[in-house]
Amino acid sequence: MTATAANHDTAREAAELLRWVPSGALIGGTWLEPTAGRAIDVLDPATEERIVSVPDGTVEDALGAVDAASEALAQWRRTSPRHRSEVLRRAFELMTERAEDLARLMTLENGKALPDARAEAAYAAEFFRWYAEEAVRNVGELMTAPSGANRILVTRQPIGVALLITPWNFPAAMLTRKIGPALAAGCTVVCKPASETPLTALAVGRVLEEAGVPPGVVNIVPSRRSGEVARALLADDRVRKLSFTGSTEVGRTLLAAAAETVVSCSMELGGNAPFVVFADADLEAAVDGAMVAKMRNGGEACTAANRFYVEAPVADRFAELLAARMGSLRMGRGLDDGVQLGPLVNASSRDKVRELVDDARADGAEAVVGGDDPGGTGFFYPATVLAGVPPAAALLRTEIFGPVAPIVSFADESEAVALANDTEYGLASYVYTGDLARGLRVAEAIETGMVGLNRGLVSDPAAPFGGVKQSGLGREGGHDGMLEYLEQKYIACTW
Ligand code: NAP
Fold it and tell me: Does pLDDT of 2 surpass 60?
């Protein structure tokens, strides 16, 4: 498989897509342009060319955003739930109208194939629609105390200014999954998008502005000084919430920093999803599911199937079928027609994938398809299936974050569950079986926050998304997503 990048003109494509997207930081309703020497160059991962530069926000810029968010909070938290709902609904509609532009912009800066970017644009907009619907459902509780002496009244109030830090792999959806519930709850936000993909975040900012979000309610500060900015904001008493999506490693350091000021934390961290196939499964359906669980977003997903455990009698057949599908994918620049697999986001991601595969092969794994770095321009790595992977291989313990499917066979149900749980991560898992009772039994035994049972996709704006173990704290999406931005207040009443 070779990578192809048809004739293109990055500057022209970028200019067209950026006609309505500002390239500045959004602070207090003002778009600040990059100044010389303080800019982040955004690259096209397929060509390694610069698309545009955005400001590299300083700690002072980020604190300015907290000033704006803090000032806007007093008004915003008092707006009616119906008003906030309607603003979010307009944001959903505007985002849906501009979905194609947004998808192309994501492909340009992230590299993902256009079908993946289109799916993300729709998924991201859905969080605005869902939280437009949830904004008017902030219910409390009232009960008589067991003694009968008083009433217990519980209300839920917005927590305050929230710091939202997002990754590059789903640059739109990870942001709307936080902004939607935060705004619905009545919070104001300071967003720090990933430095690889700030343009998508700025586009979302523009959409929200046009939807009627007042100045200061949503602030967006791209910055390469992530650690410094996060520490300064977490030390500021006005910031009462941190919602982070990213690696477990960075999540741990943020939790430690947040402990100093006892800031409420929601953490969506890394994964190492097992994909378990029993011999009684519909093998064609399992391969369809595997293609989604592994190849959605080119493998750069926290929910991506990272380890395939297949019952011994069907392991070779599964590897053959999966390799045929993986090998037929067209790799190339994500914006080009017919491309199904784009480049990885940057050189270090590509190098990490290559090293993991090379090490596994050196230890005896066999590449059924792929497995070789194509070289050349762009951060491409081919769809790869590895069979006979030794249990100690590093890629079974590491989040691969690329288009590589390692296959290991197992003997029985208890071994499958033990292998699946042999990790510090616990985000998503997948189980394929024709026996529903077994499917539910294994789904209960696997230590993950989400399970796909005969299904390769778990993400849904209406469902509680999140992990157990070192994959995170809290849930995003669904009804629970808004609770992360609300605090309970208990009022003991006598009347
Ligand atoms: P990352 O390196 O942890 O970065 C995520 C965000 O944190 C970026 O905005 C990054 O900014 C910022 N950051 C980096 N170091 C920081 C620090 N010391 N303090 C504060 N912020 C810091 O993760 P990534 O490589 O972008 O994303 C991939 C990871 O995200 C994977 O582990 C994946 O599993 C996880 N993820 C999880 C979910 C989920 O819902 N559980 C969803 C998607 C992705 P810069 O870009 O400026 O460095």
Answer: no
Regarding whether 368 and 233 lie in a shared domain, the answer is no
Verify whether ligand 1 is closer than 6 Å to residue 416 (CB atom): no
pTM: 0.97
Catalytic residue selected from 268, 300, 311, 484: 268
H/E segment holding residue 463 = none
Assess whether 435 and 479 both reside in one domain. Answer: no
pLDDT of residue 23: 87
Q: CA 264 → CA 131, 230, 483, 485, 487, distances in Å? A: 20, 14, 12, 9, 10
CATH number assigned to the domain comprising residue 196: 3.40.605.10
Q: Are residues 327 and 231 in the same domain?
A: no
Question: Does residue 466 lie in a domain region?
Answer: no
- Ligand 1 in reach of 165 Cβ (< 6 A): yes
Active-site annotation holds for 493: no
My answer on whether 296 and 211 are in the same domain is: no
Would you state the pLDDT for residue 7?
61
Q: Does the pLDDT of residue 272 top 60, yes or no?
A: yes
Number of domains in the chain: 2
| Of 242, 236, 294, the residue nearest 269 (C-alpha) | 242
* Residue 120 belongs to some domain of the structure: yes
pLDDT for the residue 436? 98
What confidence tens digit (pLDDT) does each residue in 383-408 have?
999 999 999 999 999 999 999 999 99
Candidates 164, 158, 166; CA nearest to 84 is 158
Q: Which domain holds residue 172?
A: 3-269+471-491
